[in-house]
Write a structure and sequence with these properties.
about 140 residues, 5-stranded antiparallel sheet, 7 strands, alpha+beta, 4 helices, two-stranded antiparallel sheet, single chain
């Protein structure tokens, strides 16, 4: 099924439970300890929200490559099909937003460090932010 947004005139696919189950199951072999609960949450949410499959694929690929010690994220879907992944731990906030063609990362550290960057451009900053979340 394809839905077209009147505001942006962009098309995106609505992820069905079957599509998400296939995507998530391919990631489960390399999963984080929290994957079972996150995959269940994703499957439930796609029944309510239109999810762009490209954004979902990008977010799942990024998540599976995080350190195993990374705590469980909060997952959200935007009405535009985007996927959001967020951690808020002891004053450190890391937010990743995945869209069809791009992904952005926002970090605000307990020590006052703050940045916003594209996923492709800020590897060192993102690595540092991930470490801050893991050790907090």
């Amino acid at each position: 099924m394809t839905i077209t947004s009147n505001q942006t005139d962009a098309s995106f696919h609505v992820a069905s439970q079957a599509n998400v189950a296939a995507q998530v199951s391919s990631v489960l072999a390399q999963r984080q300890p929290w994957w079972p609960s996150v995959s269940y949450e994703i499957r439930q949410m796609v029944e309510t929200y239109p999810v762009d499959m490209h954004a979902l694929n990008r977010s799942l690929t990024w998540l599976v490559n995080l350190p195993r010690s990374m705590p469980r994220p909060e997952i959200g879907f935007g009405e535009d099909g985007s996927v959001s992944v967020e951690w808020d731990r002891r004053g450190n906030v890391l937010h990743a937003r995945f869209e069809r063609e791009c992904a952005e990362i926002y970090f605000c550290g307990a020590n006052g460090d703050e940045f916003e960057t594209s996923l492709d451009a800020g590897e060192d900053k993102i690595r540092s932010a991930v470490v801050s979340i893991v050790v907090s």
